[in-house]
UniProtKB/TrEMBL annotation:
Name of this protein: PAS domain S-box-containing protein/diguanylate cyclase (GGDEF)-like protein
Segments forming domain PAS: 58-111, 174-214
Lineage of source species: Bacteria, Pseudomonadati, Pseudomonadota, Gammaproteobacteria, Lysobacterales
Endpoints of the signal sequence: none
SUPFAM superfamilies according to UniProt: EAL domain-like, Nucleotide cyclase, PYP-like sensor domain (PAS domain)
PROSITE patterns: EAL, GGDEF, PAC, PAS
Amino acid sequence: MSRDAPRADPDAPLARLAQALAALEQAAAGLAVEPPLRPLLDALDHALRDVRQGAAREHGMYRALFDAVPDPVSIIGRDGVVLDVNQASLRAYGRPRAEIVGRPIELLNPDLPPGHMGPVLEALDRGETYVVQATNMRADGSRFPVEVHSANLDFDGRRAIVAVARDLSARREAEARYFSLIEHIDQALTVQDGDGRIHYMNAAAMRLYGLDAEAEDARSPAADDDWLVLDVHGRRLPDAEDPPARALRSGHTVAGEVIGLYRRSRRQLLWLAMTAVPQFAPGADRADRVLVLASDITALQRDTTLFQRVQELAMIGGWQWDRASGALYLTGEARRILGAARAPDSMPAVLACLLPEDAARLQRTLDSIRDGTGFELELEGRQHDGSPFWVRMIGEPDPHDPAHARISGTLQDITERRRAEEALRTQAQTDALTGLLNRNAILAQIEHRLRAPDGPDLGLLYIDLDRFKIVNDMQGHDAGDLLLVEAAQRIRAAVGDEGRIARFGGDEFLVICRTTDDPTRSERLARQVQQAFQAPFRLGKDEFTVTTSIGIAHAPQDGDTPRRLIQSADVAMYDSKHRRRDGFQAFSPQLAQRQHQRLQIETQLRRALDNGEFHLVYQPQVDLRSGRILSAEALLRWNSPTLGALPPDRFIALAESTGEIARIDHWVLREATAQLRRWQDAGLAIGRIAVNVSYHQFIGEDLARGVEQALQANGLPGHALELELTERVLVEDSHDALRILEGLRALGVLLSIDDFGEGYSALNYLRRLPIHALKLSHGFLKGVPRNASDVAICQTVLGIARSLGLGTVAEGVESEAQRDFLLRQGVTLGQGFLFAPGLPPGEFARRLATQST
């Protein structure tokens, strides 16, 4: 076909058929066709008209469809001549139909190389579609890129080619923008396959990973032995679990994973937020490549890790709660503090971690929050394993939230602080030796129960250990402490959870219990305690029987204050001890009268010294052979305007328990030394006076200083004063006792042990302390000489004194027989009613004057 050949007309076959039919009619007319042929010709004519109408319809449909295609479509002969184009082609090339149809395809694509039809026809003859990218030209000479898809077509009874040209201008422009974007974004973008080979990476990826885009067989960090892949917790991540591998394996996008990349050669750690998108080849059902988008979050991760570490070190977590939606966010440290089995995702879940009372308190607080208000609470809860925790919770509405629906704050773990406070509180309330409550703690407990809103409900047991002092003296303090510890354990086992137990002091214990639900509980517990002490105590190889004397008092009838209630129980305990050991006694009206008298004495005692109600009497200490007065012992007497004359055994112990004894002892010391000075100034022959020193005065302050001041005030030498001490002074604190006694001896003061043998029998201490004499107790002397045991005891004490080189003074000499016994034993100094009771100063002076004449 020449370049000027007319285009093929799709209506040509019908035209030729019509021409043949007309020729046939003409021939028939010339041949004088018989009438039977006319119907046939009419039928043919009618059929022809139907065919024409059908062809016209199909041609119209073809044109409509052809022109409706939005991309340029050309029908090209196998020789390269354009046979037809659609309306999109006319618009795209800017040419009329007449300029295109019948012209070679080079008109539209002048850049086609010679022989370009060969590859096209070869592909089409193989039954394939041929695709090529080319550059087409418009009528004005402008060019635009196209992608041409060619296929075989039967056109007007001959083989032709249909070519669809898709304008790539918009795509090329979009691709240019896309590639410009991915080359300039700061996120690393790579395309890699399952073996880790990189097929594409942008500039950010090259910078981030330090890879070379031009290097052959460039590999991703995950596939490079120089890199170590870590999970968000810093643990090594298996190769099959990194985001690209998971995306390839699953065929689904793995988004927002945080991983660490550690480069061994540089000792460098990168933290990345990575998203991996699987890529599928056309027609494939499995991904063969993966697009990886990574952002460098090393600084953010460092800050986050540092912030989390700070939270962990400070034990402070964060929380935010949206009241409107109920959503709750907790930081990792906040979740750790709460310790729930599942991380709380709502405020009710947080409340469930708290103790009911504290949960209700927090709920009330949250309900009351208004604009601009905040809160701070200390709350107690339990973790899922039962471990207790305490937390300080602070919160306030978000000031940037106009609805004030969001509340943010902190959770601070204060468990250790509260435990330390509890330990200190427990330590402050606990007896260090036995682990029981101490004196202050039990007093607070009693006070609390006496002030209970529903009234006092309290029974109190005052327990004293019988014969404890004997064990303590014989075995020493360590053995005594062991006995107290075991005694505490026995009392604890006897009482169980029915009462609170305290070591009140020394070998005394208190038990408090409820009585409303069981009025007999106090007596029952007393019996249980006594039964617990039936078995002997074993200390080393020795066994000791230690029993209890128990006094019982009930509130409020026996006392409405801790002090009065304890005093009532104390009175009952002493009554039990005096009646019989290993018993118990409840406080009674008779004991109440005795207690009342004790309170009266205590009240009057506090003002007696200031009111000048005390006076001293002086009992002569005489030479048992001649009866001559050598010295005197000052004895305290109290004549109360309200209570009358009271003997020492009525008030001395009470003065010791109230601490008033220290002031009284100082007065006695000053008054006795002043009286000795007055007698000597009167020319009376007396060189020494003896004064009793209580344990409280001995340890209370600088006794040596007080003695020195008294001696100096009256111009007396040290040997003019004898201090009579109790055995308790020797054993309570031997180190301090030695220091004090040495100070007194340095003054020249004589020291003796009063009533030796009745109390602690501290023989071990006599060897080391500067004692010059022992006073033989009148209790031992009372049965002499008839009672063999009393005689034996006296002889033993006197033998001890002689062996230690100590002098002896006999107290309570009341008969000539006793004096004769003492003289036979070598005792030459004594005092007692046989010679004189305590005498007023004037009478004592008169007797001194009489013996001098």
